[in-house]
């Protein structure tokens, strides 16, 4: 990971923290056990992201037509950072109690790990762009033998967990807004991999039919 990527990860983590403190207040946030645990999990995941690998390289071949999803992810991500804490503080669309909060914290931790684990497995093959990297090869074992896009599933689960930790109905809706750009990215990624690996990728899709949610999708 280069310095630019590391700075981006740290800046993103700091931005989420700023939004939470602005909306909830530091004392109110830390005094709630579930939210304090959420903050700890977020800090651990942010630090882990610095060491798992990945890149933003266009590699040898890139589907540049899919770059439109990046600003969409950025806008939804910023909204998720700010709206659920503010919703929780103002009780605009909140629901449930501490049980919902702890369930959200558990989902956030699970989704974060599911998001980062494939990055660690793929290493330099994992890019923020839809691209074929030098020496690229298919990954078909481990989590990839269950679902073809485990990192994207992790993103959805962690986003939903973040919203639930703040009991935010608006946050749940924002997490759902990630589905259309994720589906567009999956389509572009699978088309690129199919064109690169041909029959090998077709065989992988036949063995692992679930794109995003095992048993459902």
Automatic annotation (TrEMBL):
Pfam families: ICMT. GO terms for biological process: methylation. It is found in: Membrane. Its main location: membrane. The keyword Methyltransferase applies. Keywords: Membrane, Methyltransferase, Transferase, Transmembrane, Transmembrane helix. InterPro entries: ICMT_MeTrfase, Metal_cation-efflux_comp. It comes from the Bacteria. It is a multi-pass membrane protein. GO terms for molecular function: protein C-terminal S-isoprenylcysteine carboxyl O-methyltransferase activity. The chain crosses the membrane at residues 6-23, 35-56, 68-87, 99-117, 152-179. The keyword Iron does not apply. GO terms for cellular component: membrane. PANTHER family: BLL3993 PROTEIN (PTHR43847). This is Protein-S-isoprenylcysteine O-methyltransferase Ste14.
């Amino acid at each position: 990971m280069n310095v630019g990527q590391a700075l981006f990860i740290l800046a993103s983590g700091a931005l989420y923290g700023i939004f939470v403190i602005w909306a909830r207040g530091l004392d109110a946030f830390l005094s709630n056990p579930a939210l304090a645990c959420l903050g700890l999990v977020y800090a651990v995941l942010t630090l882990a992201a610095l060491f798992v690998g990945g890149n933003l390289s266009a590699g040898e071949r890139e589907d540049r037509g899919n770059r439109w999803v990046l600003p969409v992810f950025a806008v939804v991500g910023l909204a998720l950072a700010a709206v659920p804490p503010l919703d929780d503080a103002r009780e605009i669309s909140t629901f449930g109690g501490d049980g919902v909060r702890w369930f959200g914290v558990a989902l956030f931790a699970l989704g974060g790990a599911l998001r980062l684990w494939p990055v660690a497995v793929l290493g330099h093959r994992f890019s923020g762009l839809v691209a074929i990297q030098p020496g690229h090869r298919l990954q078909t074992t481990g989590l990839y033998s269950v679902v073809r896009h485990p990192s994207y599933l992790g993103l959805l689960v962690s986003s939903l967990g973040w919203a639930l930790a703040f009991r935010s109905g608006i946050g749940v809706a924002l997490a759902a807004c990630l589905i259309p750009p994720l589906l567009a990215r999956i389509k572009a990624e699978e088309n690129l991999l199919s064109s690169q690996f041909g029959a090998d990728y077709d065989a992988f899709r036949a063995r692992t039919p679930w794109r995003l949610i095992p048993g459902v999708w």
